[in-house]
Every structure is written in structure tokens, then in C-alpha cells.
Fold these 2 entries.
Entry 1:
Amino acid sequence: MEGLRYFEEIASSLDNEEIQAWKQSGKRVVGTVCANIPEEILQAAGLLALRVRAPGIEDTANADSHMHRINCSYSRSVLELLLSGQLEFLDGLVTTNTCDHMLRLASELEANGRFPFVHHFSMPHTLGTSSTEWFVMEMQKMIEHVEASFGTKVSDRDLCESINASDRARGLMTRLNELRKEDPPRLSGAEYLNVALTGMSVPKERFCEKLEALIPELERRQPEGKGRPRLMVIGGGCDSPGFIDFIEAGGAWVVADGLCFGTRYYQGYSDEEAKDPILAIANRYAGRLACPSVMNAFDHNHIMLTQMIRDWRVDGVVCARLKFCDHWAGFRKLATEALQQDDIPVLDLEREYQTTGSGQIRTRVQAFLEMICT
Ligand code: SF4
């Protein structure tokens, strides 16, 4: 479909034509390595916040000599990007402490990168009032560092404009997500992921223009494939539309997700009327589906996932987690037990970051779909 081509193109690489145009106009780009880093701060300083992905990295041989292979392949692939010179267009980077793999990656990026700006954002690992206060303090520290490094001032008004830009994108993605509730959905899970990845790779205004043009096109679309099993995909480090396509090729639709590169990035809004924009940002990050590294968030996530399963009429959940990712392995165990009690089957797939499919995955997905359909 013509309107989707732009999104496929942007999602297929880390650097893209919009970033080049942005840089040519004298503006700067800062990478972020996790969905827990608030992009609103960077945007408020006039920077483009780019979620770092490593599409096209097949081999992590260089990175493997710095980080042991028991670190997840997302973290090693990002280091490979750095070591092969593919992050040189960035003017800065924000790292975080999602997990030990991410901490190892952060130290390697700091040691081997030549970025004019590197900031470490320390995310809280619990939900609650003190964690929100922590998040607020971390944002204040990030603002001070951004101001000093880029010679700019971030006012409340800048923050409010940045919140509006992110919320506009979130609102459009919510409309897009609604189109996945239909049977058949108006767009496949792979197409949705291409759009979602674009929104974290280009300026928000440009993304919203393109998405506003796409949605009416999709609303007029008459797709085939009614009655196929409807799946939700959850997991970490999954930014591969090819992998989602591979699952759907088995005869299913991926109609919902709980991915850091998908719904988690867009879920919820900041209170645009709030007196304190920093607190409004923190509350939005705390209210959405939480990262499995957040230790007391299982019940919060279970309630949200169950509601999504109901609303999108999901028949089964695929947990696609990266090898050696303990956070998602732990979450998968708890989620499998809880969802199976609600009669929702769960398929556990362990994969590498670059995986788009394999004979073993095909067999397991087919067996899962047959089980759902009987
Ligand atoms: S996929 Fe898991 S191990 Fe890898 S960076 Fe994310 S949370 Fe850490």
C-alpha cells in the first residue's frame, strides 16, 4: 500500500532522510537506548530524540570482544553499531540502567564513543510516590546537563510544547491501534510496527503529518483474512517487522502488543493542563504498561494486559523474549501462570535480536495456532 511505503523505508534503517534533513538545517540528534528515557526533555531543548535500534546488524563479532555473549543481542548489536561507526551522526546519547546488560552497554558506549554529550538517566525500578519523585529528580538533572552541553535553556513552555508534540503522536497511534480491533484488522502487526518505529525515528511533527494522511487510507482499505487467530506479542528488544510478518505468515494476525518498540512507547498521555510539566511527564511514564524491570509492577501490568486482551479480542499471547534477558524471562513465567488462569494461552519464544524467523519458530507458532483453533 502506497501510504505505508514511507514508514517501511524509515523503519528499515537507523539513519534516514528525515534525520539528514534535520541535521542539514543545523539541528542536533540525541540517541536514547530505552523506552524509559523521557524524550520530552530532549525535544524541549530543540533536539531530535532518536530511539536507537540496530536494523541490518547481522553479526556482533566486534562487540562480542567487549561484551560477553551472555549479554542480550540487543545490547551487543547497539555496541556493534558504535564500533562500526554507524552512530557517528549522533550528537549525543542517553543511557540508562534498565538491566545489567544495559549498564554494561552504557559503560562501553561511554568508553568507546566520541559523543559531545553522554548522559546517564537512572530509572526507578519500582512504582510509587517515591519513584515518581526520583523520576522527576532525574529529569531535572537531565535538563541541567542538556542546557549546559547544548547552550540552551529549557523553559516550562518548551516542556509543554514538547509534551503536546509527543501526545499528538500518541493520539494518532491510538487511532491507528483502534483499526487493529476490527476483523480483519485494517493493518497487519508488521505494518503497525513499521509505523511505530517511524514515530521514534523522525521529528514528531513530520511523523504526525504522515500518519494523519495514512489513517484515512487505511480506513478505506478492505483487507482479507477474516477469522484468523488474533495474537498479542509481548517481549523485549523486538523491533523487527520481519519477525512479526513471519508469525502472521503462519495464518494469524498480530492485533496488539506490549512491546517497548510498540504500544509501550505510545501508551497514555501527560496531563497537558498540569501546573508542573515535569511531574506530568513522570506521571505518564508511571501510568503506562511498565517495564518488567520494575519490581512491583506485575499486578499493574497484568490488569492492563488483560484489558487489552479483552478490547482487541486476543486469542493467544506470544512472549518473544531475547536470550539471556532475565527481566522478560521472569515476567514471562508470572504472565504465563496468570494468563493461563484466565484461559489465555501463552507461547514462549526465545530469540536473538536479529531473528526474523526459523524453522523451529514456524513449527512452534503453527502448533500454537492449531491449539488455539481447536
Ligand atoms: S532486552 Fe532484556 S536484557 Fe536486553 S536490554 Fe532489554 S531488558 Fe535488558
Note: The mean pLDDT is 97.
Entry 2:
Amino acid sequence: MSNFSFTKEQELFRETIREFCEKNLTARSGEIDQNGRIPDEIVKGMAQIGLLAMTASPTYGGSGADFTLATIATEELARSDNSVATAVLFLVEAAWGYILDKYGTEKAKEELLPKATKGESFIGIGSTEPDVGSDIAAVKMRAKKEGDTYILNGEKAYISGIKEAQRLDGGYVTVTKTAPELKHKGVTLFYVPINTPGITPTAILENMGRMGISTGGFNAENAKIPEHYMIGEVNRGFYAALEGFTHARVLVAAACIGTAQRALEIGMDYIKQRKAFGRPIGKFEGIQFQLADDYTKLEAARLLVYKAAWMLEECYRKGNFTYHDVNKIVAPAKLYAGTTAFDIYKDVMLWHGAMGYTKECPLERGLRGVMSYIIGAEGAQNIMRVIIGSELLGPEFIPYR
Ligand SMILES: Cc1cc2nc3c(=O)[nH]c(=O)nc-3n(C[C@H](O)[C@H](O)[C@H](O)COP(=O)(O)OP(=O)(O)OC[C@H]3O[C@@H](n4cnc5c(N)ncnc54)[C@H](O)[C@@H]3O)c2cc1C
């Protein structure tokens, strides 16, 4: 290991994104949270600077960005829209656009990726079902071959971007079963356009946080999906799905450190000026020590996140590490960044006293956003622990085998 600094190109990229965010996003985070929508001009602006599905290759309109750049972008977006909704829109498309780019057919990529990179479509992930979440191999949505199409039946739930996908004629990298008896070896991925006959979006759920992007589901009833929308090989979808989730987890962790960074900045400004007992509360050791601990945790989380981003690139694009090596960094990065962000929000809210508990203060929307990452999005915290435990102890210690 020779140094821990970002390259000039990476620094410049961060500056560009920060400038974009400060100009277009920071002041609108409250509005995004309140209106339940990321304004079109922000999405268009993100497309113009190459942020949408940015890991897709330039042949299909992407920026061909590596995962360190995608991580920087996620961190900056979450620092500005601290509810993390904009970061979610970005990261879902980066991770699953990458999977479509890597494993999709030429025909599908030519048709789908250029639109997504221009903000004229949306690519999400459809894995979770009403009674299957963490156990991806147990999904029930069935895909049966019929001529040159596959017929899909089943239901997906708690899916991000359902309204956005309908509005933009988008779709989902969808986890289905082509051979249910083979469990994880019978999983196949398809791109499923949300506006396909036989696909019906289900009720939009009202979440507690990251309000700017919708959550809902969709039913498939004899929906015909053309064979060229298969992503990767038949019955090999489990591995491609894990690759997508692994990428997405790093970006989720990056969003956690971005929004936590904003919370700490708000907190430091506040404790320097808020007085109690005749002095700024930042002078009290009880507050300063919490700040020191929070800063330390945030720096440690950031190191984990950027190491994970670097390892992803080395493993999946250059073949220098195994999936197991990557798991041992990505799972701790997501686990630690999530809990750190939660801890920091809690501390900074406490420093604000009663003010921290109000909607006047931008902290509560950040805390609500962070909760979505801890509960589930791209894998629950306990699932990160299961991954770490079994990577350290060996596959015979996977608790559900
Ligand atoms: C805001 C939001 C957006 C989402 N967006 C999407 C999306 O776009 N696409 C998508 O496919 N899904 C999405 N999800 C769903 C998410 O992926 C799931 O919530 C997640 O996989 C967990 O599944 P579950 O909610 O069914 O919980 P379950 O799997 O039922 O787990 C329930 C609890 O049990 C724990 N648990 C489960 N197994 C174990 C174990 N072996 N050991 C210890 N504890 C265990 C979990 O940690 C959790 O606390 C989203 C979720 C949220 C909250």
C-alpha cells in the first residue's frame, strides 16, 4: 500500500459533483422530502453531467466510470440531499445499470441503457417479494420459457422507484425462478419493463423516510418477456444478482457516510454558537468527546467504504480478488457505515435539544433516510453479519444451511 489519497482526477470529479449539488440540490432537500419527488430538472442535470447509470460503458451512453467515482458521487449526493433519496436514485441505476451492461444482450443494452443514461428511463432492482426478502434464493416469481419469450408470474414488493419507472417507461432487473427445484441454481435475471402487458404496479407504500423516491411493487400475470431481456445465462442469475447487490452495498454505505458528514457539519456549526451555562456547548467535554468519537467513526467508515469500492473494481473488472475477499470488506463497510450514520444523527440531534426533534431542523429527515439502509435496502444489517461470520468461519457455518 503506497498512499491513501485520491487522484487528481478523482478530486476534480468530487469538486464538480459538489458544485453541482451545492447549486442545484442542497437547498431543495427539504422540498424533495416534503413533495415526495426529485424535481425533473435535477434528474436532467444529473444526466447532463454523466451521473445516470454512470458505470455503463460509453458505447451505451454511460460514463464508463469505475466504482470509486460512483462512490464519490453517491457520497456527495447524500451530503446534499441528506434524506438520501437522490443518492438512492443514483446508486440503484449505477449498480443495476452495471449488471445490465455486463451481462445483458447487445439488443437490450442498445435499447435500454442510452435512455437510462439520459434520464429518459429508469432501471431498478426487483428482488424482494411479499414473503421473501433476505433469502434471495427463495424468490417465487416464476419464469417459464414459451417459444422465444418467457412467461412471468408472481409478485415483487418493497421496490424502489415504482412511480418513477412508470413515469419514465423504465423497468427492473428482476430476480425470477426458472428451475425452482434447483433453489439458487434455478435463479434467472430478466429486465422487466414496468409498462409490459401483464405487469401491474401495486400500491405505493408510504415510507417513513427518503421520500423523494417511491416504493411499491408489481404483479406479473402471464407477462411475456422477450428472451433478449434475459440478463446473463439461464439459471445463473443468483451470482449476477449477488454481484449487483455487492456493488449496491458499497454505494449504500457511501450514502450513509455522505449524509452523516452533513449531520456532523450541521452539528459542529451548532455547538460552536449554541450557548448553555454561559458558554458554547462545544466547550463542554461531554459534547466535544462525542464529536471526537463521531468523527473517528466516520473516518473509519469512509476508509472501509473506499477500500470496498477499490476492491470491487479490482475483483469484478480486473480479476485480482475473489468474491470472498470482497465480501470481507463490503459487508463490514455497509454494516459499519449504516450504524455510524445512525449514531451520528442521534448525537447531533441531541446536541440540538428540542430544536433537533422538529421538522424545522434537517436532522430528522436524514435519520429517517438512514433507517431505510439499516432496515433493508440492498441487505439488512444482520445479513451483513451473516456474510462476515461465514466468510471468517467457513461455509459450514452459514446458519441457514
Ligand atoms: C426503503 C426500502 C427500499 C427498498 N427497495 C428495494 C428495491 O428496490 N428492490 C428490492 O428488491 N428490494 C427492496 N427493498 C427490500 C429490501 O431489499 C429488503 O427489506 C431486505 O432484503 C430484507 O428483507 P425483508 O424486509 O423481507 O426482511 P426479512 O428477510 O424478512 O428479515 C427480517 C429480519 O430478520 C433478520 N434476519 C433475516 N435472516 C436472518 C439471519 N439468517 N440471521 C439473523 N437475522 C436474520 C433481518 O436482518 C431482519 O431484521 C427495499 C427496502 C426498503 C426498506
Note: Residues 8-117 form a domain with the Butyryl-Coa Dehydrogenase, subunit A; domain 1 fold (CATH 1.10.540.10).
